[in-house]
Amino acid sequence: MHTLQRLRCLSLLQNYKSSFSTNHIIQIHSQIISNGLTQSPSIVAQLVERYCASSAPHANNYARLIVSQFYSHDHKSNPYLLNVLIRCAPPTDSILLFAHWVSKATLNFDDFTYIFVLGACARRVKTLWEGLQIHCRVIKHGVLSNVMLQTTLIHFYVNHNVFAFAEKVFDEMRVRTSATWNSLIAGYCSQIQHARDGLLLFINMLRGDYGVKPNDTTIVCVLSAVSRLGSLETGVSIHGYIIKTTPNIENDVYIGTSLVDMYAKCGCLDTALTLFHKMCYKNVLTYTAMVSGLAIHGKGKQALKLFTNMTESGILPNSVTFTSLLFACAQSGLLNEGLSLFQIMKEKFHILPLPHHYGCIVDLLGRIGHLGEAYEFIMSEKVEDDVVLWRSLMHSCRVHNDIVMGEKVAMIVMNLENYEKSEDFVALSNICASVGRWEDVEVVREMMNEKGMDTNLAISTVFA
C-alpha cells in the first residue's frame, strides 16, 4: 500500500501544471503528509520544485519549511534536497538559504551546492562579496577542480564585470568544455569595451589546440560582438566559417537571426534582407532584428509592412519589437502610425509601456515640432518623474527654437534632479542662444558660477 501511495503522489507531482493554483500544491502536500512520505527525497524534492515555481507570496516559505523539517531528521550527509531548493528558489532566497546552512555547520555540502549558489550569485546583482566568500570556501574545501563549478565561477565573475578573476579561473583550468569557453566569450561580447577580447578568444578556440569547437551559442555571441563593433570584415569572415561548418544554415533560426542583426547593424541592409527571406524558420527575435535594421536605416514604412507580415504569420510581437517599431516611426516621422502602434501595443497585445517606449513617442513628437503634444503626452501618461523624457523634449525645444517651452521644461528638469547637473544649465543656455537672448545666456552662466559649475563648456555644440 505504501508503494502505491508513493507512486500516486509522484504521479500527482509530475502531472502538476503551472496553471494550477497554489491550493493544488497544498492538497498534494497534504496527501504526502497523510501517507507518511515526508522523508522520501524524490517526492519531497519535486514538492519543493513545485512550491518554488509558484508565484504565490508564501510558496517559498513552504519550500524552506519542508527542507528544514527534512533535515531535522537524520539526513545530514545528503545535501540533495537543499540543492534542489537553492537551484529553484529566487536568487536572493538561495543565497540567504546557503548562508543559513553554512552557519549551522550541520550539513555536508557537495559540488552541486556550490554550483547552484554561485549560479544564484551570477543572476543577482550586487552579490560580488558573497560570491567571493563562496569562492574562498570552495578553495578551502578542495572542490575547485570540478569543471562545472569553475565554469559557473567564470559566469559569476563576468556578470559582475570582474574579468581579471574570470580570466584567472579560465587560465588555471586543466579541462575546458564548450560551456566554459562560451561563458567567457559571452561575457566579453556583451560589452563593447571587451568585444574585441571576445573575438580574440574565439580565434584561440578555432585553432583547435584545446579539443573544443565553437557551437551555436559561441557563434551567436561573437556575431553580437561584431554587431556592437560594426566590424563588417570580421562579420563576413565569421559568416564564411558558418557556411563551411554548418549545413543548412537557413534552418538555424538563432544563427540566422544573429546574421540578420549583424549585417543590418554593419550597414548591409540588402544582405540582411536577403538572409531574412531565405530563412526557413523565423521567430519573434528574427522579425525584431529585421525591424530594428530597417529602423536604423530610416525605412519606417518597410518596418511597418514587415510588422504586418509578422502578425499575419501568427507570431506575436514583444516589448522589444515595439521599441524597434516606434523608433522606426520616430526616424521616419510617421506620427499617426507611431501613436497608433503605441495604443495597439497596450490595448491589443497587452504590453505595458516601458521607459524606452515613452521615449520613442516623445522623440517622435519632438522631431516633427509637436512640442506641446509631447509635453501633454508625458503628463497624461503619468511619467513626469522621468528626467530622460524631459531632457529629450528640451533637446527638441532647442532644435525648433521654442524658448517658452524650453524654459518651462528646463525648470522641470532642474527640479527633478536630486543634484543639479551642469548639462541641464548648458541646455537652457543653448536654447536662449538659439533665439539670440544673450542676456539670458549670461544669467545662466552666472547661475552656474554661483553653483561652482564649469562654465568653460562648448555649450553651442552640445546638441549638434
From TrEMBL:
> In its UniProt entry, what is this protein called?
Pentatricopeptide repeat-containing protein
Q: Which residues cross the membrane?
A: none
Q: Which UniProt keywords apply?
A: Repeat
Q: Which GO terms describe its biological process?
A: RNA modification
Q: Where are the PPR repeats?
A: 283-317, 318-348
Give GO MF terms, alphabetically.
RNA binding
